[in-house]
């Protein structure tokens, strides 16, 4: 049977085969193959493929080994001897409550040099070798914040990509707020986009942080758009979100818009923080808008905030700038009736109001009343009074004031409130 097969093979070959070749094929190919069992043939084919696979793995291992050798080696227990004294001091002040794995990373970050290794490679190596949990990540980030390290936000941003960090929406909020404080709007918006791509939804806290960021950067349009987005999404507006938008209007000089938001808040029995009211009152005061100042001052009391001397001084300043000395005096008396002791700034403001209207007699009566009540003039009010007397050419009165208050140098200008 083998001979017939060989004849068939030869007859199918147009070029012909020599007798020697035919004998070789017959004995080593056809004869051997037909004598082998099918299982043996299958085993030999499998063994041949197996050799190829092993060969490929060996080559792959060689490539991977070369790549590992090319990567920079990180010694977690040691840092370079070329670190600065400041870095050594920072390392020595690391919190003793930190775990060894966290301290190891902190040392590397404090002595970090971008010329030697990238921050992402460093963190990846730490994750691979130390197997940190979210608690470890938070410990490192908290320590970086405490040290006010320049890489704190970059580390936090890279941590978002690590599965072991278990990022949530508040982690994104913190980074956005951090970039906002540094006025890095583009970086903050990049984090916002990354957050949305990963399926997190913008909530009240994040949108409020954005309004605050845009407000601080002076971008009123984006602040307004974000504020309106909150309303359209049906997100409840609280004192923080309102306050951030009011501050945006104050910075833009749109005081009436800010005041309208205060009215809107009052209708919902929501009241802004003390600093927001104070900022709006100061803005009205500096331009001499006494009516706006009085409205805000009344709103402060409606919000349950007890005015202190500084707030009263801002109201006084508004009347003085507006040239309304009578109203300024009434505000001063109201301050005293409320049980507050006027500071030197308030006294100087009243004297400045009298000087502006050239009412020397009223100013003297005012000083006599203060002396009767045991209120002594401070440096600012004394300097203002001396300057006023000098301009009037009243030399003797100047000498009396200098003797009484022991002033050696005088200035004429009243510093801004």
TrEMBL record:
Keywords: Repeat. It comes from the Eukaryota. Pfam families: PPR_3, PPR_long. PPR repeats lie at residues 168-202, 203-237, 238-272, 308-342. The keyword Repeat applies. Gene3D superfamilies: Tetratricopeptide repeat domain. PROSITE patterns: PPR. The keyword Glycoprotein does not apply. Residues 181-291 form the PROP1-like PPR domain. NCBIfam families: PPR. This is PROP1-like PPR domain-containing protein. The lineage of its organism: Eukaryota, Viridiplantae, Streptophyta, Embryophyta, Tracheophyta.
């Amino acid at each position: 049977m083998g001979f017939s097969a060989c004849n068939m093979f030869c007859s199918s070959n147009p070029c012909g085969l020599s007798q020697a070749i035919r004998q070789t094929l017959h004995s080593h190919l056809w004869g051997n193959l037909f004598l082998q069992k099918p299982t043996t043939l299958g085993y030999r084919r499998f063994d041949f493929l197996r050799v190829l696979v092993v060969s490929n793995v060996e080559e792959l291992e060689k490539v991977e080994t070369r790549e590992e050798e090319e990567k920079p080696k990180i010694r977690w227990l040691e840092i370079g001897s070329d670190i600065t004294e400041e870095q050594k001091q920072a390392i020595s002040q690391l919190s003793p409550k930190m775990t060894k794995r966290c301290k190891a990373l902190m040392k590397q970050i404090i002595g970090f040099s971008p010329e030697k290794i990238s921050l992402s490679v460093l963190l990846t190596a730490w994750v691979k070798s130390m197997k940190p949990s979210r608690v470890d990540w938070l410990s490192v980030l908290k320590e970086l914040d405490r040290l006010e390290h320049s890489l704190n936000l970059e580390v936090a941003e890279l941590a978002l990509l690590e599965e072991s960090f278990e990022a949530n929406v508040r982690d994104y909020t913190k980074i956005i707020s951090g970039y906002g404080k540094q006025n890095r709007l583009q970086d903050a918006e990049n984090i916002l986009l990354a957050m949305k791509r990963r399926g997190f939804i913008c909530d009240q806290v994040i949108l409020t942080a954005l309004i605050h960021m845009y407000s601080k950067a002076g971008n009123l349009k984006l602040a307004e758009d974000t504020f309106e987005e909150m309303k359209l999404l049906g997100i409840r507006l609280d004192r923080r979100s309102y306050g951030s938008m009011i501050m945006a209007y104050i910075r833009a000089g749109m005081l009436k818009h800010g005041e309208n938001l205060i009215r809107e808040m009052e209708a919902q029995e929501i009241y802004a923080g003390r600093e927001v009211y104070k900022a709006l009152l100061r803005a009205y005061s500096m331009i001499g808008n006494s009516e706006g100042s009085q409205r805000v001052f009344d709103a402060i009391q409606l919000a349950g905030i007890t005015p202190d001397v500084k707030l009263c001084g801002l109201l006084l300043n508004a009347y003085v700038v507006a040239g309304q000395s009578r109203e300024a005096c009434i505000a001063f008396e109201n301050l005293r009736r409320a049980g507050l002791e006027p500071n030197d700034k308030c006294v100087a403001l009243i004297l400045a109001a009298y000087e502006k209207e050239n009412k020397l007699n009223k100013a003297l009566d005012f000083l006599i009343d203060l002396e009767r009540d045991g209120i002594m003039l401070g440096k600012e009010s004394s300097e203002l009074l001396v300057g006023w007397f000098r301009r009037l050419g009243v030399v003797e009165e100047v000498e009396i004031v200098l003797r009484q208050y022991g002033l050696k140098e005088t200035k004429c200008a009243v510093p801004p409130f």
